[in-house]
What does this fold into?
Amino acid sequence: MSAVGDTRKVNTSFDHHSSDIAVDPYPHYKSMRDQCPIVWSDAYQGFWVFLGYQAVWNASRDDATFLSSPPGVGIPDYPIRPQIPLETDAPMTQKLRAILHHHFSPAAVQRLEPTIRELANELVDAFVAKGECDFIVDFAQPLPARTVLRMLGYEEHRWAEFVDLIHTVVHGVTSDPDGAFTAAFALYEEIKGNIAKRKEEGLGDDLVSVLLTATLDGEPLDEEIAIDYILLLLFGGLDTTTSALGNALVRIQAHPEIRDQLLADASLLDDGIEEFLRLDSPVQALARTLAHDTEMCGQHLKQGDRALLVWAAADRDPEQFPEPDELRLDRTGNRHVAFGVGLHRCLGSNLGRTMFRIMLETVLERLPDYELTDDPAQYRFADASSVYGLHHLPARFSPQAPRHTASL
Ligand code: HEM
It folds into this structure.
């Protein structure tokens, strides 16, 4: 793969959107990372692929060199307006994050825990007597979607419509750019319509109201910025945590000893959820743009070059994680980068973790003998470039009586 006479040490044609890698991208990351922690890809007019843990870590921390502002975090560019605060740079990023920061703090998320747990049990009640379900559609999609829609003050019973639109944008960006654009447009219209309604009916204490009354540099926050922020909360909230659960349930099915350990001692999930996130990172990669020339790992990066930071590859780097492909519930010092690192580290990480943990605990507690009925590989999205997840996951288990902890 090395190109003689090329200043780039390792040339590839790696395409993160390709359906060829969507089921299992990890061997592809490994074969590139074994050659160099940073390689070049000729796809999409060319970009650097950051695969080594240290390289990804250093680039993410150096936000003065690795910019997130447009052309932004997608390669190729997403067919939508800049995502807020994801596609901004310092000091704007910190100012925008500060608006919602305390709504996603550990204390704020802890206050939500009882309602998230109640929702998890309500959802299981709806199918537990049948002895079968689709873990994604019946459980892992509605729980994060309804939780985030509720936080935003949206009609949570419409969660499936939002999930469909988000999937069309996130997973169709290269395979169906027109569809992705149309879905993004529908989401903007939805958000605008909701804002207009909110203004008419009065604001509440939800996140949309917080954004509509926020200030930036002493001025009211521009409404377009609020719209773009809401859209990112939908993107961040509705797809990622769903994928975390789906991936974990596949892992547990493949490793009966892990299931036995978790059933014997649920406290293993304290570290265990971090290991699931490390091993099958729901957000595989996001991009940056070089602010100036620099050299890393012997590669000469030029101003304006695009760089794809592959969190998922960093999280399997043997230099950082011994036996990187093994799920080890007792792994210590697990500084995974599934939520990113530095300035743009996931604003919703406390919420994502909590929803993921509650879903996993609920499955292990109420459906401990679940078995996936089909090969999950067929249900992976054909484009895993930004979110590595499943759209269906049928399973069966011993039927139980519902608990009816609350009404749906
Ligand atoms: C397991 C679940 C989740 C994973 C794996 C995940 C992953 C990530 C990653 C890797 C980034 C960093 C982007 C970058 O550095 O360019 C990020 C940013 C972000 N995430 Fe999450 N996320 C999750 C859940 C959530 C949830 C539940 C929300 C909110 C409802 C959320 C909202 C955000 C926002 C707003 C940002 C942008 C932060 C910024 O640019 O400053 N995420 N997420």
Remarks:
- Residues 68, 73, 85-86, 93, 97, 148, 232-233, 236-237, 240-241, 244, 282-283, 286, 311, 338-340, 344, 346-348, 351-352, 356 surround protoporphyrin IX containing FE (CB under 6 Å).
- Residues 1-5 have pLDDT under 50 and may be disordered.
- The domain at 11-396 is CATH 1.10.630.10 (Cytochrome p450).
